[in-house]
């Protein structure tokens, strides 16, 4: 089954400050081993991790004017879409790539936010008992561990915004998309003047607090779709897609 391309609307709705570098193309490779394992364990033709717009797993979207989605706080299992009222009229039930079975388990980060869904799809209806659900939850936990490792690599530990690596990874994707869509981009660079004097006069704890406060101000001052990062020391940057 071919996954749909991310539309410009979808891209600009992504909260970059919580993305943990997930828009980088290498992120998909990190889950390839996990999805191959899921396909073998459950004997399904399709298994994948949905990261973008994680609050609404795309296989369950109803493609009407509102693009409604079926959201679930916990695992969502549909053993036969033909018998499920929520799938009535859903185009994913039709055609060669029809969905007859779906199971999705949320993937969450430490604060409880859902950043993705581990999804199983089959073109045949099937049972999915408690043992199957427990196994899918275990696999989702493995995905959460991958996300945690990615967070450590791309999020600044002190300020909780993307570090240089995370900022560059997300900016590369944003610039590529804006170039393809012929959209303007703005870049802001910030260097805190006299920051060393704060450390020298009040100590490093107050210096850390100043960096945290400035990061919070940046996050509040820009749109959720903008990318804010700490490049290192007292240097920060913000990339603003579609600012024409």
Can you walk through the features of this model?
- There is one protein chain.
- With 244 residues, the chain is α+β, with helices and mostly antiparallel strands.
- The chain folds into two domains: 21-154, GAF domain (Beta-Lactamase), CATH 3.30.450.40; 164-241, Reverse transcriptase/Diguanylate cyclase domain (Alpha-Beta Plaits).
- The protein has helices at residues 8-12, 26-30, 32-42, 130-154, 164-181, 195-202, 204-221, and strands spanning 46-50, 76-78, 101-108, 114-122, 185-191, 227-232, 235-241.
- The strands form two sheets. A four-stranded antiparallel sheet has the order 1-4-3-2, with helices on one face. A three-stranded antiparallel sheet has the order 5-7-6, sandwiched between helices.
- Helix 6 (195-202) runs antiparallel to helix 7 (204-221).
- Mean pLDDT is 78; it is low at 1-25 and 53-70.
């Amino acid at each position: 089954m071919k996954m749909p391309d991310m539309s410009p609307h979808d891209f600009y709705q992504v909260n970059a400050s919580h993305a943990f570098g997930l828009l980088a193309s290498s992120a998909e490779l990190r889950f390839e081993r996990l999805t191959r394992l899921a396909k073998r364990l459950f004997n399904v033709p399709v298994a994948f991790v949905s990261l973008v717009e994680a609050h609404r797993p795309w296989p369950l979207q109803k493609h009407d004017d509102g693009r409604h989605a079926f959201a679930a706080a916990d695992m969502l299992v549909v053993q036969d879409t033909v018998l499920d009222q929520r799938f009535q009229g859903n185009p994913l039930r039709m055609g060669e790539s029809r969905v007859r079975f779906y199971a999705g388990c949320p993937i969450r980060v430490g604060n409880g936010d859902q950043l993705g869904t581990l999804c199983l799809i089959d073109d045949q209806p099937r049972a999915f008992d408690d043992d199957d659900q427990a196994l899918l939850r275990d696999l989702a936990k493995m995905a959460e561990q991958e996300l945690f490792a990615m967070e450590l690599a791309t999020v600044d530990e002190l300020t909780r915004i993307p570090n240089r690596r995370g900022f560059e990874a997300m900016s590369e994707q944003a610039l590529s998309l804006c170039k393809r869509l012929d959209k303007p981009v703005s870049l802001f660079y910030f260097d805190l003047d006299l920051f060393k004097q704060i450390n020298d006069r009040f100590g490093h704890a107050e210096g850390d607090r100043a960096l945290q406060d400035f990061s919070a101000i940046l996050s509040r001052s820009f749109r959720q779709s903008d990318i804010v990062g700490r490049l290192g020391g007292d240097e920060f940057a913000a990339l603003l897609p579609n600012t024409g």
